[in-house]
Amino acid sequence: MSSETNQVATEQNSTLSAETPVTPETVSTDWKANLSEEIRSDKSLENIKDIESLAKSFVHAQKLVGTDKIPVPNKYATEDDWNAVYEKLGRPADPNGYKYDLPEDQKIDETALKSFSDQAHKLGLLPGQANGMVKFYNEMTAASLQEADTKATAAREASSTELKKEWGQAYDQKISQAANLAKTVGATELFNQNMADGTKLGDHPVMIKAFAELAGKMGEDTITQSSGPVFQTPAQIEKEIGELTMPGSAYWDKRHPNHQAAVTEVLALREKKNQV
Q: How many Å is the maximal CA-CA distance in the chain?
């Protein structure tokens, strides 16, 4: 072939290359395509969409290599398996390792606290968790006691108001007699019993009146009598006034020799009643 022929062929090829672009083969976008079926179908690669994500996952995994890892026990785990986990998490070596932040002035039931520590250790509680539970229990108990005390105080005040209204100046005397009788018959402990609403039985007006009435019926028995002056209740004063002002009595008969005495006594009783 002559040099002219070769030159023509070369020019034709150059022209063909310039006018007819070569279409490259389509590159697969599935980065898992070149992996074996076993690896490609592994669930650990399910959410990794590209090589970049795979690299990040690998780097993260490498950083975890050598760190202290705690395997999560499954349903077949033994008590020893769980104990190993608790110890790695920070559970004390024994129940005596628990320390509690308790108020210095608080009375502590050492037996109950020891029982709690034993149970806390058995359940794998960390020191902070155990201390938090004791603190929560103490606060809840304190709030409950405060509420009970508030109710008891309110009950005593209501009872006192009711009885003072009924007994007047004889209030202290009646209360003393009721308390003396309760002490004599050994009912003091009964008075301290809590009722369903948290108030004490001895603060209930019905109970106090029952003992005061019984003490009154015992008359001059020094065991039940109170010290100091003796006062009448408004009801007793009213009863005495009624007896002095009965129809046909000296109070109504001006000619009766005891008329003025009766009038004076009735006026004194009414004044005493108004002072109650």
A: 181
